[in-house]
Amino acid sequence: MSTRPDINRGRVARFDIAGAVFILILGGALHFAFEWSNGFPLVAPFAAVNESVWEHLKLAFWPALVWAFIEFRPMNGTVNNFLLAKGLSIVLMPLLIIALFYGYTALLGDNILALDIGTFVVSVFLCQWLSYRLLTSDERSPASNLSAAMLVVVFSILLVIFTFVTPHIGLFQDGPSGMYGILR
Length: 184
Known about the structure:
By secondary structure, the protein is mainly alpha-helical. It has one domain (9-172). It is 67% helix and 0% strand. The chain contains five helices and no strands. The chain has helices at residues 9-36, 53-75, 82-108, 113-135, 142-164. It is globular.
C-alpha cells in the first residue's frame, strides 16, 4: 500500500512538535501535582507520588495520551496509522526513559538531575518523531494499529495498579527515602 498523497507533512510535523511541548509542560506539572493536591488519592494514578523511576514514567505517558486524544479529531482520516503511531510513541516514551536513565547511571554511577530531565526531553522528542514517521508512512495493517492501542491500555492499567500495589524492586523505589509507593 502506498502513502496517501493528501498527507500534509508540515501539518503533521507541527502537531507532533506542539505535542512534544504539551507533553513536556504537562509532564512537568504532573511531577508536583500529587504534592499540590495534598495527596488526594484520585491524583495518584496520574502524577508522581514519589521520586522513583516508575513514578516519573507517568510524566510522559499521561500527557502523551491526552495529546493523542486532542489530536485525534483533526488528524484521524488525514494521516496513516494513527493508533499505531500514537500507541507506540505513548508506550515507548516511558520505556526509553527507563533505558536512558539506567544506561547513563550505569556509566556514571549516579543520577544527575540535569540528565534526568534530559532523558525526559529526549524521550519525548524521539517518540514524537517516531509518531510523525508512522503517521506519514505507508499504511500498516489494522491489526498493528489495534495491537498498539492495546499496549496503551495495558500500560495504563499497570501505571494505576503499581501506584497502589507497588512491587519492591529498584524501578519502584523512592531514591531519597528508600521506600515504595505512596509516601504520605
